[in-house]
Amino acid sequence: MPKKGTKNEAMKAQTAARKANQAAAGQPHWYTNNTVLTREENKISQATVQNQLREAPGPNQTTKTGYPHKYYNEDLGPDGQPLFRVRTNSSTTSYREYPVMSTGNTYDFDKKPKARPGPFRAITN
What is the Cα–Cα distance from 107 to 117, expressed in whole angstroms? Predict the structure, then answer.
């Protein structure tokens, strides 16, 4: 019987190998659920995102899925810096995270159990 966590460690090693291969080839990459998105799959239009945000619940509304929820700005960009500049002189600025679908359909915020939100997010403040 394999040790607990062995499968997870193998998946991490596979993902690290994929990242190394793509970095060596100079290919851009984004990872979601250990899936590599190609340049074409990694596109979503600004209009699609804006339309879905118009239909989404407000930032302080409670939904069955837990979205929108606070975004902690812990993701780092290619330069190793947080994706969004933090205004240190404002205590009222907080980011909210919304799932957005590349298909153009609005995410079902009141479905329980929640649907898979997919790889794309809109971050608002």
Answer: 7
Q: What is the pLDDT of residues 33-49, one digit of tens each?
A: 556 667 777 778 888 89
Radius of gyration of the chain measured on its C-alpha atoms: 17
One-letter amino acid of 100: V
Whether residue 114 contacts residue 106, with contact meaning beta carbons closer than 8 Å, is answered with no
19 neighbors 29 (Cβ within 8 angstroms): yes
The pTM of the full predicted model, rounded to 2 decimals, is 0.61
Domains and CATH numbers, the chain: 6-37 (no CATH), 44-125 (3.10.450.30)
- What is the rounded CA–CA span in Å between residue 31 and residue 36? 5
